[in-house]
Amino acid sequence: MGGTNEFGSGGVEGDSVFYADSEKDVTDQAWKDSPYYADWNGDFDRRGILGGFCSTIFKLQQWMPQAKIILCSPIGGGSYVTCDNAVENGVKTSVLPTSGRESMTLEKIARIMEDAAWRMNVPYFNIYRDTSISMFNRNMMIADGVHPYILTDKGGVIHNTANDLMALTIAGKMNTILPLMKYDDFAEFVFSGVALRPVVDDAPVADCDIKLVSAHGTFSFDARTDSSGCVTLNDVYGRLTYKVMCSVGDVQYVGYVNITSSDMDETVSLSPVV
Question: Which of 45, 127, 130, 169 would bridge 26 by S-S if both were Cys, CB 3.0 to 4.6 A apart?
Fold first, then answer.
């Protein structure tokens, strides 16, 4: 998995042409020195963003031909404007520095990445479009301009909206490109004696009905905590992240737990649902 905070370096779109060195010398020395170079004698033009993506994927495909390579766009909400650090109606636009030849926004980066995925025949996750994070809520959900944010409002309530949107979107897309396992395939991951202890503000949630749902929605079940605030699960599919939900009075709470083994004992911190 490769991540980048380097979108902010700007640049131009470029092209996705594969150049032989006899046509255009765009090859870096490390690639020329590799044992794979002789099969191709060329490279994509890495001076453009599109060519840079294609060049990176191309080399990974040579070095690790069995690897599953996935391109994932930046998070959404950037808009088309022509200046840096712009604000429209009080909303950060997440515009990248311009090279002087064209303005490069996150939306344009997302479209360039999609072009690279088509060119190189790899899956593309359009997180920019599909998470419902837009220019109208981005400054709340991605306060630092890069990372999905956990917010605490003036009342002290925690909001996990951006994290949830990202996790659910990516999990759903992963299920479309990886082989779906049958229930029998999970046999070695069925765990018992799993003790979970939901807490709200460090206080045990005792004698309370709870619901657990796996992140991709395949598994869900109901349980109830005992007088000490503990619930013991048997024959539960593990090595999965579960959302833990319950209601205390009129307030709904949610938390997350990764069930990794039998006989584990885990405290699960719950936060109010907003």
Answer: 45
Please state the length of the chain. 274
**% of the chain residues with pLDDT over 90:** 24
pTM: 0.56
* Cβ proximity of 135 and 86 under 8 Å: no
**Confidence band, pLDDT 50/70/90 cuts, at residue 248:** confident
Largest CA distance in the chain: 77
Are 246 and 205 in contact by the 8 Å Cβ rule? The answer is yes
